[in-house]
C-alpha cells in the first residue's frame, strides 16, 4: 500500500540492542497502525506478521510466540494436517545479496545486511524489529561478546567446543577483513551473527551460484533433531515449510538445522539439545592424549587417514568405527589390523571387550581432568568474569560430556 511504503522510510536504521529498545523500535515503526501508541512484544510480532503477509509470504495457522529458553518460535494457532504448506517465502520477500565471486556467502550476506541497515529498506527495517538484540547474542554466543573473546578461559572449554568456537572466530575475522571493516566493529559482528544464526542456503536447482539469504518469518522456526520436524523445501519459487504430520493447536513447529552435535549447536547457535540422537562426544582429547598415543601410532593412523575425529554417540552408547580402528592399533598385529580396517571384523578373536576396556581406562583418567576444568570454569563464572549465561551453558555442555562418558564406562550406573 503506497501510504505505508512512505511511512516505512522512517523505520529505525540501527538494529535495537535491548528487548526494551526492540519494543520501542517497533512502537516507532510506522508499519504499525497509525493509532498505535504503545507496542508490546506480542504486538510487534503481530505487526511483523502483517508485514510478512504483505510481502507475499504464505502463513497457515502458525504465529510467533515467546518460548521459554529459546526466544521466539512458531506455535500452531489451529490444527494443521500433514502435508499442508505452513510457510512459503518467495524470493522477492527474501533479503537476498548479489552473488559474489570474492566473498564467502556469509560475508556477502553480512555486507548486504550492513548496507540495508544504512538505507530505508522496509524489509530490513521490519526484520530488525523482531531479530535478537546484541544483548541476546552477548548472553548466548561466546564468540560474540568481545569481553568474553578476550578473556583467557578458553582452555577451560571442552576441546571440541573450543575448536568449534575458534573456527567461527577465524571465519568472522576473515569476513571482516574481506569487507574492509575495522577490528571490533560491532555493526559488523551483529550482522555477521544474524547471518550465522538465521540464514538459509539458497541454491535452487538450476542456479549457478549458491547464496546465504534471510527468509523473513520462516526464520522464527526453531531446531529439532534430524528426522523429527517439518520438511523445508527449496525451489526457484522459494522456500516452503511442509507439515510432516498432523498438528494440534498450540504445538511448536520445528525443523532441523542439520544433524548437529551439541558442540556445534552451542558454538554456532548458542544452545544445546540434551538427549538429542544427533549429539556426539569427541574422544580425540582422550585417545590422542600424549600418554595414550605414541608418535608411531599417530603416524600409522595418519598414513591410513584415521587420525582424529573419534566419537561416542550418547543416544546409542556406541563408539564410531574410526575409534575402533584407532584403539586396535595397539591390540592387533598389522595384518590383523588391516583386516579389521577393510572388513570391520576381527580376523581371529573378537577384540570388542578389550577395546572397550582400554577406552574405559583412558576415560577414567580423563574424568579427573574434566572435574578440575569444570571447577575452574565455575570459579571464573562465580567471580563474574565472562558472561554468566554463556559460561553456564558451557558448564552444562561439560556435564553432558561427563554423563555420556560415565554411561559408557558404567552403563547400568552401578
Ligand atoms: C533461526 S533462529 C530461530 C528463532 C529464534 N528463536 C528467535 O528468537 O528469533 C535460531 C536461534 O533460535 C534459538 N533456537 C533455535 N532452536 C532452538 C532450540 N531447540 N532450543 C533452544 N534455542 C533454540 C537459538 O538462539 C538460535 O540461535
From TrEMBL:
PROSITE patterns according to UniProt: SET
Listed InterPro entries: SET_dom (IPR001214), SET_dom_sf (IPR046341), SETD3_SETD6_MTase (IPR050600)
Domain SET: 55-258
Biased composition range(s): Basic residues: 1-11
One Pfam family here: SET
GO molecular function: protein-lysine N-methyltransferase activity
Region feature (Disordered): 1-39
Composition bias type Low complexity, residue spans: 25-39
Protein name: SET domain-containing protein
Organism (species): Myriangium duriaei CBS 260.36
Amino acid at each position: 500500500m503506497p501510504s505505508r511504503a512512505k511511512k516505512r522510510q522512517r523505520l529505525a536504521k540501527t538494529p535495537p540492542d535491548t528487548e526494551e529498545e526492540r519494543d520501542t523500535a517497533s512502537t516507532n515503526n510506522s508499519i504499525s497502525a497509525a493509532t498505535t501508541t504503545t507496542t508490546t512484544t506480542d504486538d510487534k510480532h503481530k505487526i511483523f506478521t502483517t508485514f510478512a503477509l504483505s510481502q507475499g509470504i504464505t502463513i497457515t495457522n502458525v504465529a510467533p510466540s515467546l518460548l521459554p529458553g529459546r526466544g521466539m518460535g512458531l506455535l500452531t494457532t489451529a490444527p494443521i494436517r500433514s502435508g499442508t504448506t505452513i510457510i512459503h517465502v518467495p524470493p522477492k520477500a527474501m533479503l537476498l545479496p548479489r552473488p559474489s565471486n570474492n566473498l564467502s556467502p556469509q560475508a556477502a550476506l553480512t555486507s548486504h545486511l550492513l548496507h540495508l541497515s544504512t538505507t530505508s529498506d522496509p524489509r530490513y527495517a521490519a526484520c530488525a524489529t523482531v531479530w535478537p538484540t546484541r544483548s541476546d547474542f552477548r548472553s548466548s554466543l561466546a564468540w560474540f561478546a568481545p569481553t568474553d573473546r578476550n578473556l583467557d578461559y578458553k582452555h577451560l572449554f571442552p576441546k571440541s567446543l573450543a575448536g568449534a568456537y575458534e573456527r567461527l572466530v577465524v571465519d568472522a575475522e576473515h569476513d571482516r577483513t574481506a569487507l574492509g571493516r575495522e577490528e571490533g566493529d560491532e555493526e559488523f559482528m551483529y550482522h555477521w551473527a544474524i547471518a550465522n544464526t538465521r540464514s538459509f542456503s539458497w541454491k535452487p536447482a538450476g542456479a549457478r551460484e549458491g547464496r546465504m539469504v534471510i527468509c523473513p518469518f520462516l526464520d522464527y522456526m526453531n531446531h529439532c533433531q534430524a528426522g523429527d520436524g517439518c520438511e523445508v523445501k527449496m525451489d526457484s519459487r522459494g522456500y516452503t515449510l511442509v507439515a510432516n504430520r498432523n498438528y494440534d493447536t498450540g504445538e511448536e513447529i520445528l525443523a532441523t538445522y542439520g544433524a548437529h552435535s551439541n558442540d556445534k549447536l552451542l558454538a554456532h547457535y548458542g544452545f544445546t539439545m540434551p538427549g538429542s540422537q544427533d549429539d556426539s562426544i569427541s574422544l580425540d582429547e582422550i585417545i590422542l592424549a600424549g600418554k595414550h598415543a605414541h608418535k608411531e601410532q599417530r603416524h600409522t593412523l595418519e598414513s591410513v587417514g584415521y587420525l582424529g575425529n573419534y566419537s561416542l554417540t550418547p543416544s546409542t552408547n556406541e563408539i564410531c568405527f574410526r575409534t575402533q580402528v584407532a584403539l586396535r592399533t595397539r591390540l592387533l598385529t598389522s595384518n590383523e589390523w588391516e583386516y579389521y580396517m577393510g572388513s570391520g571384523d576381527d580376523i581371529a578373536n573378537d577384540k570388542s571387550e578389550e577395546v572397550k576396556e582400554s577406552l574405559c581406562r583412558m576415560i577414567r583418567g580423563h574424568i579427573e581432568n574434566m572435574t578440575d576444568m569444570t571447577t575452574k570454569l565455575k570459579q571464573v563464572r562465580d567471580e563474574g568474569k565472562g558472561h554468566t549465561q554463556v559460561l553456564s551453558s558451557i558448564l552444562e555442555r561439560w556435564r553432558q560430556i561427563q554423563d555420556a562418558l560415565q554411561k559408557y564406562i558404567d552403563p547400568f550406573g552401578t
